[in-house]
What we know:
The chain has 191 residues and is mainly alpha-helical. The chain is 67% helix and 0% strand. Residues 1-25 form the signal peptide.
Amino acid sequence: MTSMRPRMLLLAGAALLAACTTAPPAPPQPAFDARAAVAAVRAAGGAESSELDVRPLRDTQVEDLREDALRLEREGKDAEAAAALDQALAINAEDPALLQERAEVALLMRQADAAEQFARRAIGLGSQVGPLCRRHWETVAQAIDMRGHAATPAGRNQDAAAQAEAATRQSAIQQARQKRDACTVAAPPRY
């Protein structure tokens, strides 16, 4: 019987230790990839061949600034691209495509609030259908997602309030994507 007692004590100690362990930490949240977010926005705007896509005539000075901004973005000079687009917006502040491009550069610069504001202004001014409409709403979704990544540092356990906030954020992203999907309208038949 004496040999059984140390075993029981050992088992009891192991059970106590097992009861004291904490749950493993949540897996770290991947960092927000701004370039991938902008690629997703632009992919959402991919026009289908049978889709209605209205494009206005452009001012040549604005077009030059837009091309400069695109070149600067490709070179990784996002702040300079934003400045070029801001100059273009000073010429034509109500161009939804220009506002959208500025929103995308704001995403690249990790300025979620500015990205969403530019996209929402573009939504208010632009067509409620087509590729550009889808880009606007995907930008809104990406900006909300970006703010979520900033609010929840990688590896941090979330309390109930943070979990509720994350659920609200996911709902807002889902709503933006539903509106994005509603932007697709087939072109009228051609005879």
